[in-house]
Design a protein that fits this description.
By secondary structure, the chain is mainly alpha-helical. It is built from five helices and two strands. Strand 1 and strand 2 form a beta hairpin.
Length: about 120
């Protein structure tokens, strides 16, 4: 997986968001063991302390948990994962509507355009 970072935002925040996305998208399923901090840091080409900071934040959110000698795991709480997924989807949809409004589209026109594009097979689902 490609880890690309925006220099305008803290790296640990972007790491947190990337791992969150991997969890809510199912790449790291509920209950699964996560790679070690060192392995993830190496994969992302970041300092392990930076990765540790992102993982600690995910632990505080309840999305992952630690077992002393076994490592870190994704929560088994499917409801929590689904709530986070819906929250992120909601944020992206609101941004979409704000950007479409800047282009001069009303919410109903935006939805209509989405349906039109979907019906034209420009989007494969």
């Amino acid at each position: 997986m490609a880890w690309q970072f925006n220099s305008e935002r803290p790296i640990y925040t972007q790491l947190l968001e990337k791992i969150l996305f991997l969890i809510i998208s199912g790449r790291y399923p509920a209950g699964s063991k996560l790679p070690s901090v060192r392995d993830l840091a190496s994969e992302a080409s970041v300092n392990p302390n930076t990765m540790q900071r992102a993982m600690a934040e995910l632990e505080r959110s309840g999305l992952i948990y630690s077992q002393r000698t076994a490592g870190r795991f994704v929560t088994d709480d499917g409801v929590l994962i689904q709530k986070m997924k819906e929250s992120i989807a909601r944020e992206k949809i609101l941004v979409f509507f704000q950007e479409m409004e800047q282009l001069g589209y009303s919410p109903s026109q935006s939805v209509s355009l989405v349906h039109k594009i979907q019906d034209s097979k420009e989007v494969s689902l």
